[in-house]
Specification:
Layout (H helix, E strand, L loop, with lengths): L8 H18 L3 E3 L5 H9 L4 E5 L10 E3 L11 H6 L23 H13 L8 E5 L12 H8 L6 E6 L6 H12 L6 E5 L2 H10 L2 E5 L2 H6 L6 E4 L5 H4 L9 E4 L20 H4 L3 H23 L2 H4 L5
Parallel strand pairs: 1-2, 2-3, 4-5, 4-7, 5-6, 7-8, 8-9
Helix pairs in contact: 4-7, 5-6, 5-11
Length: 315
Amino acid sequence: MIVVPKRSGLARISDDLATARRLRRSRFDVAIDLHGGPRAAWFAWASGAPMRIGYAITGRSWMYTHVVERSPDLTPPRHSVLNQADLLRPLGIDGCDPVREPMEMAEDPAAQRRVQMRLTEAGVRPGDPIVVMHVSTGSGFRRWPALATTAAMLVRHPHVRVFMVHGPADAAAGSIIQDARAAAGAASGRILDGAVDLAELKALIARSAVYIGVDSGPVHVAATTDTPIVQLLGPTLPERSRPWRDPRWFTEIVDVGALPCRPCNQRHCVPGDFRCLTRITADRVAAAAERAMGIADRKYDDDHHDRDCTAGVRS
């Protein structure tokens, strides 16, 4: 892994030239450009690798020795994993299947211990169902306004704890968590702040009864586990963005259905109200999570023999 600094102006040019020299000195045999942007294409070319694979993009194809046609992002809908797997065809690797080639993320025992310590400190017992909700406060195309209401609805069930997860630097998440606690009333203590790093996120999701999130990075971390997933899709379609994993594991997509503006390029919202997300109601998502935990109940019964802790989850 070579991390390229993210600076601007003359500093960026200096960084890029230094990175290019490092790549060339490494004498790589193959360079695969999974991104397709101008900078990524230039790095692939600058590496000097005898085999350079990238998408057919106007103005950049000359930087590659092997050019692959790129499936359009919007139509027809095709999973993004398949689009990127196309870049392996020049290597004689054809096709990609979520059962045979699932998403993978290495286990981190230290992160697992940290998560277990937090659960213990929060009074979570081995069989208590945990709901992990991703608090996304960035782009409007990733911001779902009913997070707090949904969290409050779910903690009405006895023993359920909701961890509202976010990155350590996401300051805006705190206000959403406060809103959720205010809406939960007497059950507010069961809504927990889930500031986690990436390895802890994987460990917490693996221990949870259901993961709820929009189409962003954490949902694909969740796809590396067998934990049930409830995914909210706004501007993207399930054919392109659903979790890439074995279909045996519970996955439910919640979206608004057909809209004239859906899917879109996510550069700006044409109607202006982000209706692809704002029209997804809290009760629909809470019901999907309850269905997922109905499956998870059996998992906890088998793994922990603790029926009393999960009996209150069923709606």
